Structures are given as C-alpha cells and as structure tokens.
C-alpha cells in the first residue's frame, strides 16, 4: 500500500484513492520465440493475485500495476499529474450540475482482447458492483482467496467493494448505443476520478454466472440484472465478480484473462513473475513498442539490485535502505531516479476483534479502549525510525503528521496544526505517558503486530516499535506475514498493523473508504457519526477552502479517537538500466509504469 508525494487536488489536499502497497523468476528475454530486443523485465516486490483490482480483496498495487498495462480507461495521469482524457477509449462530459449528470460515450476502438466490443454493460457492471447499492447482506471473505464464505446463494447478493462516488448513483442509467448517462443523487466533487478503471468484462461474467455463451446476450443479461434488481441473477453475478478473477497462476479458463488494453497476461507463476504480451486486438492510442513485459517478483531489495546488475531485470523500484541506494548508484549503465513517493507508512489498530484496542475487550468501555490505543501510539518511535532507516535515503526526511495531506502540499502545515497529531505524539516515543495511561486503565496488553515479514525495512521498523512498546508495558508478538495484504480484512489475525497506503488519484474524497463506518478500506471496525457526517459534506463541497477545513476537522476527530498514526512519506529510488528508455516515475500509482507504452529498448 502507499501514498505519494506533494500532490494537491483542487483544494491542495492530497486525499486520494488508496491502494495497498507491499512493502523467482524468469531471466531477461527468456520467453520462447522472442528476441532480447522485444522483452523488458521489471522487478517488483509483491506478486499478482487478482485480475479484479476494484474489489476490496484485489485493490492492491501488485495487481493494479499489471491491470493498468492490460486495460484502457477514459483517462489517466501524465507526468505532471494532470488527468488526461483517453479519447481512443471514449469521451465523457458533465452535462448537468443539478442533478450531477455524467455522459460517457465509448469509442469504436474500445475492444476486449477476445474481439468483443466494450459496451455500456461493462460500465454498468463496474459501476454498480462497486456501489454497494445492490448488496442485501454482509458476507465474510476468505483471507487467502477473496471468496465469499458459503457463496452467495438464492437471492443473497454481496459485491465485495465500496465506492463512495458510485454509491451516489441510485438510478439505472440511460443507455443509447455506445452512450451511457448517469445521474448522481447528490453532487460529487471527484466524479471524474471514477473513470480511471473499467473493471472486468461483463460478457465473461455473464457467461460464467448465467450460462450464456453469446457475448452480446451475456453482457446484456448482466446489465438487465441490475436494471431489474434481479437478486437471483445478481447473486450469481456477484459470486463470479468477487471470486473468479482471483488467481496466482495461469487460470485454466483463459477467458478470465480477457482485457481491453495494450497488453494481455500470457504467463503467470505464483510468487515468481507475470508476463504481458501485446494484445493483437488492441485498437487504442497507447500501442507499446515492446512486445513483452515481464514483471518479476523479487521481494528482497538486495536481490532486485543484484538482478539489475546481472542484466536479469531492466528496472527496479524497491523499498530501499541506505545500503540499497548506494548499491544502485554504484551500478554502471544505470540511472537512479530519486525522490519522495506516493506512499506513506502508518500504524493502524483493530477495534473489532475483542483484542486490546477493542471496547468489547473491556465490557464495551470505549473510553478505556481508546486510552489503550493512545498508549500504544505514544510508544511509536517515529523520529528514530526516520533517523535510522529513512534519512540515509533522504536526508530531508521528516515525520508526516497528517492522515490526508502530503508534506509539501499548500495546506499541509495548516492541517498539521488543526489535526493535533504532532501536538499530541510529537517525535515519539513518550514512554512515561504510555505507562501512565496503562496504569490508569489497569491493563498490560498483548499486541499481535502484523507487517510484511519478507520486507527488510518493515522488519527493522517492527523491531524498533516492539522494543519501544515493551518499555511501556505492552507485550508485542511478531505476527509478521508475507500475505499481510490479503489478511488485512481478517482482524482475528492481528491487533496492530504496519503498512503503507499508496494514492492512485488527486481526488479529495479518496480517503473516505478508510474512515467511513464499514468503508472499503476500514478493516478495523472504526465508526464515528461525526466523521461520517464530515465525509458526507466533503463529497459535495467544491470550494477548496471549505474542503481544507473539512479535512482538518476529520483529522482532528481521528486524533481524538486514537484511530492511527502516520510515520513517514516513502523515499522512492528507481534504478533503470540505460537499455530501457523513457522511464520515469510519477507521484501516484502506478509510479514507473505510468507511460509504459512510451518505453523503448535501446
């Protein structure tokens, strides 16, 4: 997971949509039948596991980097973080402010890799599956597969996703040919940020869920199920949408790999690599010059640098340490792009697992649970983590003291002053304050602490946090796990977790899913009527000054409730072989992949 740099949307706020960011393999040009000149191998630190990147389960950078290269959409971000229309996929416009009405028209060139045209049915599936408006019960997910426990049977419908913007689309849209017109129930400031993904193909979902082989009829049946609120059909559709696109190796049914972008997935080995090859049916404007891109999974930063040195990969963007940066800078014929990334590190605590931070642990005493959370946050050695681990990479690194605003944004200092995090927790740790709180409530909690166990930097952070927290009276158990991302939704496995959120857009409402009651990224049972109300206001507020004020108020409530604590903005060195041209990295996911179609091999 992660978040990026000093971005500012209309309000100077950088509260973007967020995805999880992790913090072997085929060698370069090993694919049969391809010359070295047609293949580029890139190192990444977490393996692909889902071709549906908009579910709560699949929403991770490891998946969405790949899906970005495999799918087109109505817009994308350029190097200056401008949202650029992709007219070869389609056009869009706002036709009314009251009510907010958005018209989208698909281009004739928008085509799935199996030759089937992209149609409004695909957009309807993507929109309504994420809206939450058709769910009629709440399902529990399998941590490893993303499957809904027991499946959706009969008329039980549950789509595993949550989009605050799409939730405002209550009415079925008007469809005329390739044009679809949506009406929102109230204004939504970030409506255009919802057009950056197209989801999975409706005709494939319709075939698998409803047994309809004809692609036109299958897609139409999916659309009709939403239009008619046919829960029996939607139950089957939601099963397929939630589960069928989750896989770590090549699926037996190649229809699950159908995409509409420049590349398609042609090889996939669990925890090793994913290979994308040119889509022969792609008719859009982002035609790549490289025939094949293989993303090789190398969680260990040292190993990824070694692979770059050996010529096995042409680029790597590891979660680096000072030693790793020096090694990259010392490599011949390699350019190192250094800067601050889109990801911020933080610690969250579960409030819904009857553990040390949950009121249920104390007979429903919310105040007591809050004080225990505060005590734990007091022990986080934020400045020591930065001094020991981050400053060697970025000498200017400083504590990030905002939940939603990136350091360097115009309103960052204002937000820091308003939210109270810096004033309360300072550089950390404050062991005496933590001890006093634990003495007051009379507990010595045991905390199961989860992090990416195969990530060197996270291992180092965990040790610093453990040593500090145990000085205050906590017992900290190592719950590190390589599959931490898939386990986030199961708080029975942990009490506190260390990871990064990575921003995917410059919108001001993206963090909604983190803090809203039952929000898609709110895994921890946090619930505040005050925060929910402020988020409602932020969704419709178009004045930048008032947006900032709302973000400040939300931050103050999160600090008061001891929701979480932020630590630092990621340094993001990217090492690129001089053989691979036109590579740069932007301050949003998909970072270095943002202009893959412009890459060239020398």
TrEMBL record:
Q: Name one Pfam family in it.
A: SBP_bac_5
| GO annotation, biological process | peptide transport
The UniProt entry, under Gene3D superfamilies, shows: Dipeptide-binding Protein, Domain 1, Dipeptide-binding Protein, Domain 3, Periplasmic binding protein-like II
Fetch the PROSITE patterns from UniProt: PROKAR_LIPOPROTEIN (PS51257)
Domain Solute-binding protein family per the UniProt entry, residue ranges = 94-506
InterPro entries annotated for this entry?
A: Peptide/Ni-bd (IPR030678), SBP_5 (IPR039424), SBP_5_dom (IPR000914)
Q: Which residues form the signal peptide?
A: 1-22
Q: Which PANTHER family match?
A: MONOACYL PHOSPHATIDYLINOSITOL TETRAMANNOSIDE-BINDING PROTEIN LPQW-RELATED, PERIPLASMIC BINDING COMPONENT OF ABC TRANSPORTER
Name of the protein in its database record: ABC transporter substrate-binding protein
Can you name the source organism? Micropruina glycogenica
Lineage of producing organism:
Bacteria, Bacillati, Actinomycetota, Actinomycetes, Propionibacteriales
């Amino acid at each position: 997971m992660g978040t990026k740099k000093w971005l500012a949307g209309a309000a100077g706020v950088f509260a973007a949509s967020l995805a999880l960011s992790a913090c072997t393999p085929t060698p370069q040009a090993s694919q049969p039948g391809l010359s070295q000149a047609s293949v580029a191998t890139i190192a990444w630190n977490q393996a692909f596991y889902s071709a549906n990147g908009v579910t709560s389960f699949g929403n991770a950078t490891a998946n969405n980097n790949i899906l970005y290269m495999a799918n087109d959409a109505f817009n994308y971000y350029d190097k200056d973080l401008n949202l650029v229309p992709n007219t070869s996929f389609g056009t869009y416009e706002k036709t009314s402010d009251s009510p907010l009405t958005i018209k989208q028209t698909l281009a004739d060139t928008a085509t799935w890799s199996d030759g089937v045209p992209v149609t409004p049915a695909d957009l309807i599936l993507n929109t309504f599956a994420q809206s939450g408006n058709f769910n009629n019960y709440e399902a529990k997910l399998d941590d490893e597969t993303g499957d809904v426990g027991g499946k959706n049977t009969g008329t039980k419908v549950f789509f595993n996703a949550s989009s605050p913007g799409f939730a405002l689309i209550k009415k079925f849209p008007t469809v005329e040919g390739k044009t679809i017109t949506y009406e929102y129930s109230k204004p939504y400031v970030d409506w255009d940020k919802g057009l950056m993904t197209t989801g999975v193909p409706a005709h494939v979902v319709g075939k698998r869920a409803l047994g309809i082989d004809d692609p036109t009829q299958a897609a139409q049946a999916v659309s009709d199920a939403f239009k008619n609120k046919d829960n029996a059909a939607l139950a089957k559709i939601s099963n397929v949408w939630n589960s069928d696109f989750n896989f770590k190796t090549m699926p037996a049914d190649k229809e699950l790999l159908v995409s509409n972008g420049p590349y398609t997935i042609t090889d996939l080995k669990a925890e090793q690599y994913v290979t994308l090859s040119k889509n022969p049916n792609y008719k859009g404007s982002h035609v790549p010059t490289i025939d094949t891109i293989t993303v090789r999974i190398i969680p260990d930063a040292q190993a990824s640098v070694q692979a770059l040195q050996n010529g096995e990969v042409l680029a790597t963007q590891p979660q680096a340490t000072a030693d790793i940066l020096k090694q990259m800078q010392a490599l011949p014929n390699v350019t190192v792009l250094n800067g601050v990334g889109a990801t911020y590190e933080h610690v969250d605590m579960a409030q819904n697992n009857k553990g040390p931070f949950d009121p249920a642990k104390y007979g429903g005493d919310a105040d007591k649970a809050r004080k225990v959370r505060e005590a734990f946050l007091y022990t986080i050695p934020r400045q020591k983590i930065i001094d020991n681990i981050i400053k060697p990479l970025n000498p200017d690194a400083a504590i990030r003291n905002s939940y939603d605003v990136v350091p360097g944004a115009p309103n960052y200092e204002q937000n820091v002053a308003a939210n109270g995090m810096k004033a309360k927790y300072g550089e950390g740790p404050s062991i005496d304050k933590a001890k006093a709180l634990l003495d007051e409530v009379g507990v010595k909690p045991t905390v199961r602490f989860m992090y990416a166990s195969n990530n060197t930097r996270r291992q180092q952070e965990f040790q610093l946090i453990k040593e500090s927290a145990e000085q205050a009276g906590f017992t900290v158990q190592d719950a590190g796990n390589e599959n931490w991302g898939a386990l986030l939704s199961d708080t029975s496995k942990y009490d506190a977790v260390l990871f990064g959120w990575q921003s995917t857009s410059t919108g001001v409402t993206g963090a909604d899913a983190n803090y809203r009651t039952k929000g898609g990224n709110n895994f921890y049972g946090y619930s505040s009527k005050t925060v929910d109300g402020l988020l409602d206001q932020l969704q419709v507020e178009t004045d930048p000054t008032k947006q900032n004020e709302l973000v400040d108020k939300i931050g103050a409530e999160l600090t008061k409730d001891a929701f979480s604590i932020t630590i630092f903005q990621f340094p993001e060195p990217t090492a690129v072989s001089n053989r691979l041209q036109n590579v740069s990295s932007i301050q949003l996911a998909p970072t270095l992949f943002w202009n893959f179609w412009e890459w060239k091999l020398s």
